[in-house]
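User: Predict the complex.
Assistant: Input components as received:
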Amino acid sequence: MDHISPVLWQFLVKWLTNFPLIPPEASRIAPQMDALLFFMILVSLIGLTIVALLVASFSILYSKKRHPVAVQVEGSTLLEATWTIIPLGLFLTMFVWGALIYFRVYTPPPNSMNIYVVGKQWMWKAEHPGGQHEINSLHIPTGRAIQLTLISQDVFHSFSIPAFRVKREAIPGRYTTVWFEATVPGTYHLFCTQYCGTNHSQMIGDVVVMTPEGYKQWLAESTSGMSLAQNGERLFASLSCAACHNARPDARGPSLANVYGAKLPLASGGAVVADEAYLRESILNPSQHVTQGYAPIMPTYQGQISEEGVIALLEYIKNLDSDYRIQQTLNTTDLLPESASKAQAATGPAKEKPAAHEPAPQGMVKQ
Amino acid sequence: MSATIVSLPDQSTARIPKVNYITKENGILSWLLTSDHKRIAILYLISLTFFFFIGGALAGLIRLELLTPQTDLMATDTYNKVFTMHGVIMIFFFLVPSVPATLGNFLIPMMIGAKDLALPKINLLSWYLYMAGGILAIYTMATGGVDTGWTFTTPLSTHYVNTNVLTTGLAAFVAGFSSIFTGLNFIVTIHKMRAPGMTWFRLPLFVWAHYAASILMVLATPVVAIAIVLIALERTIGIGIFDPTKGGDPLLFQHLFWFYSHPAVYIMILPGMGVISETISTFSRKRVFGYTAVAFSSVAIAVFGFFVWAHHMFIMGISNYAVLVFSLLTMLVAVPSAIKIFNWTFTLYKGSITFETPMLYTFGFMGLFTIGGLTGVFLGTSGTDIHLTETYFIVAHFHFVMVGGMLMAFLGGLHFWWPKMTGRMYPEKISQLAAVVTFIGFVFTFFPQFILGTLGMPRRYASYPPEFQILNVFSTAGATILGVGYLLPVLYLVWSLKYGEIAGDNPWQATGLEWQTQSPPLTENFAEMPVMDHEAYDYEWLEAQNQKRQKEVISAG
Amino acid sequence: MPDNSAIAHGSPENSGDAHDEHPSYLRHHFNSVEQQADAAGFAMWLFLVTEVMFFGGLFTAYLIYRNWYYAAFVAGSHQLNVKWGTLNTLVLIVSSFTMAMGVWCSQTRRRSGLVLCLTLTFLLGLGFLGIKTIEYREKIEKHHVPGFHYSLQSFMDPQSEPEVYSEYHDKPLPLDMAVHTELYFSLYFLMTGMHALHMIIGLGILAFMILRARTGAYTSGHTTFVLNFGLYWHFIDIVWIYLFALLYLISRHA
């Protein structure tokens, strides 16, 4: 999007980074946003200069000493039109340009790697699908589109990475997303920019951008062994989800295999794409999101599950491509003596799982 | 600057007129129970100055803390309270009432040729409501303060702080009604009490600006009132209206809050723009270029100002299409302000310009408001807003328009009409110095904050990464200079009450109706009802009047 | 918009003199009685506009949450007694009529007529508040007041309320929808409560007016006060009609 000569551009950026007036450009969108920023600064400088020159020259030429008698000038429709249309045209240009960038920043590409970020007073918790958890830091590779799915546990926070020129509010009650692609390895500031109480200014951290190899290594070193999806599977069992969502012919709830991204017909009419927001809402406010053909009997889990728990369940559901393991769980559970009541077998699936279970593929979202 | 338009009466023989609105009645009760719009304006002026310096002291504390990257001057909680109270006091108890309640109250009836506002007792009530709110705000500060930010964002303000949210909310609520009644009074007055011959397009642009601001006061303020009520109930009872666990939406509060708070910024700036129209005309000896355009621009700003509130919420998770709509409308609301700046600039064209203090403040306004307004476009452009919002860029933007714009206009207006209100001139040299000092201090304080914001420094931070320190030190240094610039007028204006030169009726040889009566004015403003038979800013009419008066003096002598 | 009363009257008016030329109720900053009445009426209309904006915030919240949680709003609305609501609506409409008659009495200088009309209006207003008290008490007893032991039982088990169930045969709401009924009742109490507060203030002013009317204050040419209060009263009536439709009649259609 920049029509500036690459040489001049590099010079500008280098100079500006050494006497920083702008943060380093470390993402793919950063130079595009900076181009618009420079355009606006340029227009502002020109506008300011015009006004300043006019005021200065009029003040000198028409000072009382030099021009003792004022000439009563009524106005000029031509001038009015000029300084209405030109600013309007410039502002509308900025509007269109900015809108394009805005849409770009908040429309994640379909192949982006998803990282969940939960904000709470006063720290950021990042959860990688492979199970890596970070507090107040975010490790990411270059060359990959990365989507952040943000939510807050308490009040409004705002996740800001100035070097990437991205920022997004973390809201209590629903997900927000933003995406970026890091281009330059290094460590950059991470800020919370929405005032959130006492330690708002301490809710800062580092975004560590690594080369893809470095990132792979970091992943291996920092994993706790369980991916988010695996944690989700445990929760799925311990919360007795399989009692209804088990793909049996008489099941009380719809099968969840491959449901992520599918278009679901709703009992209330209409259809909805089962994205993260829908899945979260179905867990917390199920009766408003019932799939067609099923009764609104799912109990709400509001208050029984944390945001991290929801995220783990989401990851599990996103990676679910068959009901085989669920069926297995139920079969095994049925054999247990206490299976008369609704399945409370928290230990069942975990024992069944062989050690060589393949972790969910890193970040690849099933479509 | 030896050339000046000031024309004072012969100081050896001049006297303040014996009967005027100040001497008409004596005693504190005659002031506290007055219905004279001029006395009420003075009451407002005194109380506003008081609250301004409290807000200013809080600002000083903020800048002192930010000298160093660590939180070492005060506890983080205290810092949070300081910036919250700074915002609450400056916005609700200084900026919103400043020009309308002082200059507007004093001048609008005189400018339209009326004896008072339409509802004088409601005017007095407005002042008492303002004082009640202000006392509540002081009480809040004295009993532990509040630390939600002046924006009271939910759910922080409803569920997560233990500070005086309710009393602060009540203070703002009460002050809001003060504002509503003032606006209501102005609208009724301007519609119904203009003198014979005073058609809409003969009104001074100061009146047009206040009319537009009053529409905003009347229509927008009730919405923030209900938002505050909802917060109070959410906080005490837990009605769930903003609580996601009960199905409420915290973003609803922001919509209700910004539905007022965006028009509020136009409530704050429009009266200041009205002052600029008057001063630039007087000190160029010309009518304002494009009178109709400026008048309609004021109304356009008011109307468009209602439709842009969600540009404060671009990254809050509202839909992308909503962002498109609000960003487009924000571009539209920026245009009338640009039109005004150019019209004022061309008022200078072929004028006869002098540089007395009000004119210096006017130039300061034009430069600083242009910068502030243009940076508003940076923020209204959705793409760049992503990077710049919630940083010091925003802080710099609104201080440029509010302090560099509005406060400069207020000071300029105060100096311009000081001789009319008090009968005495302020001392010119020191006031010009103060104006220049204010300008320099302002630029040093707030320009570095644009850079800080672009670099990413978030707002409302008590501590920050060390690389931001040098710009913060610049900013604090500027704030010290700025403080001096604001302190000086208090000192010399009070001094002038006793020792200033006698001003006479029309020291600036200006054209408004307010300048055709004595200074200070009579309680009933005019000895006989004026009839408006000339256009606004008609310097030829003024010339003819002066010649007629000279002939009368000669023939009488 | 030409305001002829502002421009046409050019007679100079010296303050302090010529009292015999104008009525005692003409304030000195006005040039004529017409101007004063005009300004007062305009001010009242403007004040009512601010009231619309004030209630507007609540109506906005109502519209959003009704759209999101329609089932909960229907269930909540069924808990209101439409008969009382209709009666209250009639009471207010009749009181608006008596108020309008009062204005006519003031304009035609009928002192006792005015006192009668104002008193009737006052009594009807009291009646409205009395009925509202009955309704509120019922809500308190059923634990439908948000924040004060709010109970979801009526919504999750509609048959526990036989009178309501026999009329509507509501299906039981699941828990996550039932919790949203608290939002409905919050809005119900807020909107009717705000309305009732305005009525109480109105009744206070009305009481003051009745006392003054008995001395003939409003039947000797100075009708402004009664006229403008009438505007306020009609506004309260109109707001109630909207509240009635939105809160009581949610699921009723042809």
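Residues 28-556 of chain B form a domain with the Cytochrome C Oxidase; Chain A fold (CATH 1.20.210.10).
Let me know if you want any component modeled separately.
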